[in-house]
Automatic annotation (TrEMBL):
GO cellular component: membrane
Domain of life: Eukaryota
Membrane-spanning residues: 37-64, 76-94, 106-126, 146-165
Compartments in which it is found: Membrane
Main subcellular location of this protein, as a coarse class: membrane
Pfam families the record matches: COPI_assoc (PF08507)
Keywords attached to this entry: Membrane, Transmembrane, Transmembrane helix
InterPro entries: Golgi_TVP15
Organism phylogeny: Eukaryota, Viridiplantae, Streptophyta, Embryophyta, Tracheophyta
Protein name per UniProt: Golgi apparatus membrane protein TVP15
């Protein structure tokens, strides 16, 4: 008899499940997390920008010292150019459309890396070995070697076509965000009806 009860329980149909209530937020698919490559590229771009700003600051200090002491006017002029080019590196790292539009070479990572190496060499050039400016010399070395390392990473990454992959993923992310916005507008207009 116990077996018959078990068999009947096994053959009894299950009651239908109630359909979940659909809300506007549950209709949308969960957004995927940010692309890890894009996050890494943004972080590296931020570090490169900070390093270029450090190079610019070091060159400003060196130019002020050169003009103030009148020790070497040419060194001061050289430092002013280094500040200007370091500012271009910072703006290139923001990937501002105006700069990329007119200087296409900065859209490619190899070109960007070469510019960073150039600024690093300009920062390191004409070191002052006087004992009273030891802190400035240490700061010059740190800033120039950090920007040199960033430039080498950009060149190697550019040769490996990481920049192309980054641009493709940025385009995909932009398309996805626009599709989600369009879907949210559609859902909210349907909810209003």
């Amino acid at each position: 008899m116990a077996r018959n009860a078990e068999r009947e329980a096994e053959t009894l149909p299950l009651p239908p499940l109630a359909p979940p209530r659909a809300s506007s937020s549950s209709r949308l698919r969960a957004r995927p997390g940010p692309d890890p490559l894009l996050v890494i590229c943004r972080c590296f771009s931020f570090v490169t920008s900070l390093t270029a700003i450090l190079c610019a600051a070091v060159n400003v200090l060196s130019a002020v010292r050169s003009f103030k002491d009148r020790s070497d006017v040419f060194d001061g002029i050289f430092r002013c150019y280094a500040v200007l080019i370091a500012a271009i590196v910072v703006v290139a790292e923001t990937e501002w459309g105006f700069i990329i539009k007119y200087w296409k070479v900065l859209d490619y990572w190899v070109g960007r890396g070469m510019l960073q190496i150039f600024v690093a060499v300009m920062t390191r050039a004409f070191p002052d070995y006087s004992s009273k400016q030891k802190e400035l010399l240490i700061l010059q070395n740190v800033a120039s070697y950090m920007l040199l390392a960033c430039g080498v990473v950009y060149i190697v990454s550019g040769i490996l076509c990481i920049g192309f992959l980054k641009r493709a993923r940025q385009q995909k992310e932009t398309t996805r965000e626009q599709a989600v916005k369009d879907l949210e507008v559609t859902v909210s207009s349907q909810d209003a009806l």
